[in-house]
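Notebook entry, structure prediction.
Reason for the run: the old model in the group folder had no record of what sequence produced it. Starting over properly, with the input documented here first.
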Amino acid sequence: MKILGKLFGSPAMVKLLRLFLFNPEQVFTNKEAATRAKITLDTVRLELSIMKQMNFIKKKTDYRAVLSKRGKNKTTKRKRVSGWILNEKFPYLEQLQDFLMSATPIKHKDIPKRLGASGTIKLIVVAGMFIRNQDSRLDILVVGNNIRKSQLETAIKAIESELGKELRYAVFDTQEFKYRLGVYDRLIRDVFDYPHEIILDKIGVESESKS
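New structure, fully documented this time:
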């Protein structure tokens, strides 16, 4: 991220570029962009103004369902929201997307450490976004004991802010995972039967998954 930050002006710019490039049909308000990229609102305003001058993003109005409550009754209304969306006519869109996809800021060897505080991690398998295969059902599979899901979610969201895209992930305790593996659970097989990378394995699952 440091090298890319220097290349593109700042780490915040890189995060926002990724956010719009990898979510091309989504409209983001300033606040939403700040939350997803985990940067300050003031920084977002500054970087988005530069991106607008580059014609990398454009203004768009989005209509969203909002739940409102009056007394005991709940109704759903459509709220008009103004935000930013990727400009599909930006001339270097494909080249920039390919470059940022290949120049991932998350090294696979660092993932166990980043997730480790959430519990006793026994297995981490990455696919999808991490190996440039968008057809995968999951981006990351985590197996372990005493996993605190709130802490794991916090760690995942921090990774998402750097990648610029929400991750598809699944979490299992070791016993449940071994059972699912043994009965050829569809989700588990869809991970191991297709391109993936095992970056942590303390339960010897690699040989089991091939049997």
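Summary: The chain has two domains: 2-102, 108-209.
The old model has been moved to the deprecated folder.
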